[in-house]
Write a structure and sequence with these properties.
32% of the residues lie in helices and 25% in strands. By secondary structure, it is of the alpha+beta class. It folds into 2 domains: 1-38; 47-105, SH3 type barrels. Strand 2 and strand 3 form a beta hairpin.
């Protein structure tokens, strides 16, 4: 019985330190998971391409373009959702918001005339 009491006291002494270490491991793990889920942040006026995800399920369209656009971001709705509009004249606005994980920033090169 004395041996059991000694073990309980030893565990009780190390408990706060073990809890702190476990909490730190949990926080580090959650931060890594959060970094994997976060979509890129775009701002209004950015030119982006939209991923055509439905094509990935079709074998007949595997040689078709995977990206559509460019589009201009007209409004950031929060939680990674954006409203897009074409850059063509006359421009048309897409009806449904697009998640930022399906967008890629458009890189334009300057052309000298």
């Amino acid at each position: 019985m004395q041996e059991l009491k000694k073990r309980i006291k030893a565990i009780h002494k190390t408990l706060p330190e073990n809890r702190q270490k476990a909490q730190q491991r949990i926080e580090a793990s959650q931060e890594l998971q959060h970094q994997d889920r976060v979509s890129p942040i775009f701002k209004e006026g950015d030119h982006v391409y939209r991923h055509l995800g439905q094509l990935s399920k079709s074998h007949s369209a595997k040689l078709q373009p995977k990206w559509d656009g460019p589009y201009v971001i007209t409004k950031a709705l929060g939680n990674g959702a954006y409203l897009l509009q074409t850059i063509e004249v006359p421009s048309r606005r897409l009806k449904t918001p697009i998640n930022g994980s399906h967008l890629q920033l458009a890189q334009f090169e300057a052309i000298e005339i």
